[in-house]
Amino acid sequence: MIADTQNNQRPLTERPILETPFFESYKHLIQNDRYQEWSGYTTLESFACEGQEYFAVRNTCGVYDLCPMIKYDISGPDAERYMNRLVTRDVRKVVPKRVAYSLWCDDNGHVIEDGTVFRFSANQFRLCCAERQIDWLMDSAIGYDVAISDVTEDIAGLAVQGPISCTILKKMGFAGIEALKPFQLQHFSLDGCEVMVSRTGFTGDLGYELWIGAERAKKLWESLFAAGQPYGIRMIGSTALDMLRIEAGLMQVGDEFMSCLQTVRLGRDRTPFELGLDWLVDLEKGHFNGRRALLAARTKGLKRKLVGLDIDWNKQADGALIYSSEDAKRQIGEVTSALWSPTLKQNIALAFIDAPWFEGEQEMWAEIYLHRECMWERKMFRCRVTRKPFYSPERRTLTPPNDM
Fold first, then answer.
1. Using one digit for the tens of pLDDT, what is the confidence trace for 141-173?
2. H-type helices in 103-149, by residue range?
């Protein structure tokens, strides 16, 4: 039996929901009871008002607790070969001190999950993802000289996002942070403790992610909020983060796709091509999990694809079904995530649309159900495929960022 030494030696099956290393530091900011579980941790849907938290990221600086993010350290003589066999992009092109977004598939070319690959050196990597993947990683490691360690509880993380984020980090003493380019990482010292900073995020805005040993989490939080207090820095919950990532056109496991290891119905698995992630698949790099199936899928063409939608009217199209404009009874797709964008003042959505409607500019109909005064109303509104990301400010990639 595996025991949890931090919870009175109780077995893992009886372990309560965990609090993140930052929870004690920010619990006094919680003004409601909107909690949710993520990877065994207590997280917040919102601290007070999701609208204010959303605008904190777009106008000043918002901070999101990343501790529940699953983190695997992968090292050893075969680490590069192993990672290149695991994920769809060519890891050999990712130089040390860089971060790469990628995904991994089963042998049928269906997506298991997406995540970020941190490369520290020639044979040292860290893989970060939303859900636990240790079984698949260990199975894929057979025949490779690699060590895989789950360091989720050892590493604490904060996403610091928004136009003031770089200014605040410079005020903390992170000299040279303004030279960090998108998807680069660098190590800094904070009162004698090492902090890893990567220019990454899930908001489509200027932002950074800060990583530190869990035992020093309180010190990092205090230093960050002391530096950010004059600028209106604030914690944000997952509802605001979801609004931000939809504007950025970013997909999320559980919304845009289910891991193929969890689906139980035929036809619910997704390939990278269906998710619009062709650029993450390097079919020329040599063999990797799912390569043969993806070669065949590319030849056959797509039956449906994840696209962005611009929808008339101002009501969110959550769960809406999409119909052909030529035949109002023919369903051709469904919305996976939807938002009335506070910044764009536009009704946007991510949706799977059948071929050939995901190409071109032909109009379609979105079937939206509204709950008004205990009554449901069915409304039909015109919609059309539009570009992604919906929102992408210049500051997201500007190096150095403008001083605020």
1. 999 999 999 999 999 999 999 999 999 999 999
2. 134-140
The residues, ordered by sequence, that sit 6+ positions from 97 with a Cβ below 8 Å of its Cβ are: 119, 120, 184, 185, 186
CB 74 within 8 A of CB 167: no
What's the confidence (pLDDT) of residue 362? 85
* Helices and strands per DSSP (H, E), number in the chain: 8, 19
* Across 11-15, 170-174, 175-179, 368-372, least confident range: 11-15
Q: Which CATH architecture has domain 17-69+153-247?
A: 2-Layer Sandwich (3.30)
Q: Say if residues 317 and 305 touch (Cβ distance below 8 Å).
A: no
Q: What CA–CA distance (Å, rounded) separates 146 from 75? A: 6
Residues 6+ apart with CB under 8 A from 334: 319, 320, 321, 322, 351, 352
Which whole number is the average pLDDT over 128-137? 96
302-386: CATH topology: Elongation Factor Tu (Ef-tu); domain 3 (2.40.30)
Average pLDDT for 54-61: 98
CATH architecture of 70-150: 2-Layer Sandwich (3.30)
Residue 280 has which token pair? 């993450």
Q: What are phi and psi of 10, to 5 degrees?
A: -75, 145
For the chain, the domains span 17-69+153-247, 70-150, 302-386
CB 165 within 8 A of CB 61: yes
Q: For 40, left (φ over 0), alpha (ψ -120 to 50), or beta?
A: left
Find the range with the poorest average confidence among 68-77, 192-201, 289-298, 371-380: 371-380
CA distance linking residue 400 with residue 393, whole number of Å = 14
- What percentage of the chain's residues is helix, strand, coil (to nearest 5)? 25, 35, 45
**Per residue in 285-325, pLDDT tens?**
999 999 999 999 999 999 999 999 999 999 999 999 999 98
Q: Which helix (H) or strand (E) holds 305?
A: strand 304-311
- Give me the sign of the Cα torsion angle 25, 29, 33, 38: negative
In sign, the C-alpha dihedral spanning 47, 48, 54, 60 is negative
Is this prediction's pTM over 0.85?
yes
| Strand ranges of the sheet holding 62-65, from the earlier edge strand across to the other edge | 185-190, 193-198, 207-213, 155-161, 62-65, 234-235
- Asked whether the beta carbons of 401 and 166 are under 8 A apart, the reply is yes
